[in-house]
Amino acid sequence: MLKLLMEPFRYKRIAFDQPLEGNNGLVKKKQRVKNWVGTLKRIWSYLGVYKKQLTFVILMIVLSSGLSLVGPFLIGITIDDFLVTSNRNNLLFLLIALAFVYLFQSGASWLQNFWMVGIAQQTVFTMRSQLFLHLQKLPISYFDKRQHGELMSRVTSDIENVSSTLNSSVIQILSSILTFVGIISVMIWLSPLLTVITLTIVPLMVFGMKWITRRTSVFFKNQQQHLGDINGFIEETISGQKIVKTFSQEERVISAFMEKNEQLKGASFWAQTYSGFIPKLMNMLNNLSFAIIALIGGVLVLQDAITIGVIVIFAEYARQFTRPLNDLANQFNTLLSAVAGAERVFAVIDEPVEQDKEGAQALQTMKGNVVFKQVSFSYEKNANTIRNVSFDVSAGEIVALVGPTGAGKTTIINLLSRFYDPKSGQILVDGQDMTQIKRESLRQHMGFVLQDTVLFQMTIRENIRYGKLDATDDEVEEAAKQANAYSFIQKLPNGFDTVLDQDGSGISQGQKQLVSIARVILANPSILILDEATSSIDTMTEMKIQEALHTLMKGRTSFVIAHRLNTIQQADQILVLQDGKVIEKGSHEELLTKKGFYYGMHYGE
C-alpha cells in the first residue's frame, strides 16, 4: 500500500551547482529579491519541479474540501426525509453513505499531508543544499562583513520557516479558500436570504480581526525584540563566564538578567493576551451566527420557506464558515514570515561568488618566489589599509612582518592568499601575476598555521588528514612525529582515533597548534604562512612548537607575523610596517644597526 502511495513521488535529484528548471528557471539574473510577490514566484520555481506530485496534492485537497461540505448536507437530508417524516426507508443506506464520506475525507486529508510533506522536505533539502554550496563559493570579504550567527540563522531558522510553511500552510490556505467558496455557494443555493443574513457577521469579524491584529503585531514585535535581547545577553554571559566570576560580577549579571526577563514577561503577557482574543471573538461570532440562523430560520420554517434540515445545514456551515477565515488570517502571517525567511536565503544565494579571471591558469608546481610591486589596498573606499607596498622574496626565504596593531600585517597575508585582490599594484608568484592564477590552485600550494587554531569535530587522524585527503595512516603519523605531536596523541584514550569535541576542545591550546602544524606538514606547501603561531602557549609547549615550525619551514618560503620579536631574529628578511607602509626592511642585525623604528620596538622604546 505504501509503495502504491509513493509511486507518484519519484523525486528528481537536483544538481545543486546548476539552476533549477522551473517555469522561468530558478535564477534569471543575479539580483536581490525586493518584494514578497517576487519571492513567492521564486519559491514556486522550486515547487514547479514537482508538478506531478502537486497535482495529486491539489486533487486530494479538492476531494477533502468537497467531502467536508457533503457531510452536513447529508445530515440535513436525513433530518428532513427520515426524522421529521418518521419515514425510516433507506435510513441505513444514508447513514452508511455518511460514514463513507467522513472516512474518505479523513483518507484524503491524510494523503494530501503525506504527499505535501514529501514535496516540502525535498524542496527545502534543495534550498538548504544550494545555500550551503553557495556559501562555500563566496569570498572571504563577504564573511568578514557579516555576523556568523546571522548567516547561520539563514541556513537554519529561515530555511525551517519555509519548511514548516510548505508542510502545512500551503494545504491549509488552499483548503480554506475552497471550503469558504464551497460553503458560500451551497448556502446561496439553499437559501439566498438566510445566506445574506448569515454573512452579516463578516464585517464584524473583519473589523474585530483588524483591531486585534493591529495591536498584537506591535506586542509581538516587542516580544521578539526582548527575546532577542535576553538570548544575546545569556549567550554573552555564558561565553564570558570566567570573566564574570573573576571580577565577582554575578550579582550585577543576575540583576541585569532579571530586568530583561521582566521586560520580556511584560511584552509576552500583552502579546498573548491580545492574541487570545482571536479565538474568543470567533466563538462569540459563531454563537451569534447560530442564534441568527435559529431565529430567522425558525420564522422561515413556519412560513414553509425552508425546511428544518436546511437550518441544520446552515448551522453547521456557519460553524465551518469562520474556520477557513480564521485559518487564512493565521496562515497569512505564517506565510509572510516564511517569505521573509526565503527572501533572506535568496539574498545570500544571489551574492556574487568568488571567480577567477577568464584565462586564469592552474599551477602545477610552485617554487615560492613572491614579489609585491607598489601594492595598495583598502577594505573601505576612502581609507587605504596598505599603501605602495613593495618587496621581493626569494624561494625558501623566511620573511617576518612586524609592526603595531593595524599596521597592515594581516592585510598583506590576505592579499597573498587572494582572500582579497589589491586595488592597485601587482603581486607576482614565480614571475606570474597572481590574478592570472586560479585561486584554488594557488591555495593548494600554501599552508596556514594561525593564531586561532581551527580543528573539526572528528578524529585527530582525520583532522591531520584534512591537509591531504588521500594520505595513508603512515603518512599521517609521520607528519605528527615531525610536528612533535605524536607522543601526546599516543597518550590519548584512543590515540589517533580520539574524537575531538567541537572546536577541538578536549586537548590543550598548544596541542591543537601541534595538530594544525602536522596538518600543514602533510599538505607539503611551497609557501607557509604563520600568524603568531606560538602566542598564549606555555614555555615547554612553545619549545616543541618552535622546533616543529623549524622543521616545517625548511626549504619553504615562509611569511611570519610576530609580535614577540625574539621569535623572528633568524628571519632572512624583516618587514617593518606602520600606517600601511613598509618603513624599514632588512635582517635583524641590519635593522638594529639602523637604530630606527625596529630598534625602538626591540628595546621597548
UniProtKB/TrEMBL annotation:
Record's keyword annotation contains ATP-binding: yes
Localization in the cell: Cell membrane
Alphabetically ordered keywords of this record: ATP-binding, Cell membrane, Membrane, Nucleotide-binding, Transmembrane, Transmembrane helix, Transport
GO MF annotation list: ABC-type oligopeptide transporter activity; ATP binding; ATP hydrolysis activity
Gene3D superfamilies, A to Z: ABC transporter type 1, transmembrane domain, P-loop containing nucleotide triphosphate hydrolases
Parts of the chain that traverse the membrane: 54-79, 91-111, 196-213, 290-315
InterPro entries: AAA+_ATPase, ABC1_TM_dom, ABC1_TM_sf, ABC_transporter-like_ATP-bd, ABC_transporter-like_CS, P-loop_NTPase, Type_1_exporter
The UniProt record lists the keyword Membrane: yes
Record SMART domains: AAA
Origin superkingdom: Bacteria
Domain ABC transmembrane type-1 intervals: 56-337
GO cellular component, one term: plasma membrane
Membrane topology: Multi-pass membrane protein
PANTHER family: ATP-BINDING CASSETTE SUB-FAMILY B MEMBER 10, MITOCHONDRIAL, ATP-DEPENDENT PERMEASE MDL1, MITOCHONDRIAL
Name of the protein in its database record: ATP-binding cassette subfamily B protein
Lineage, opening ranks: Bacteria, Bacillati, Bacillota, Bacilli, Bacillales
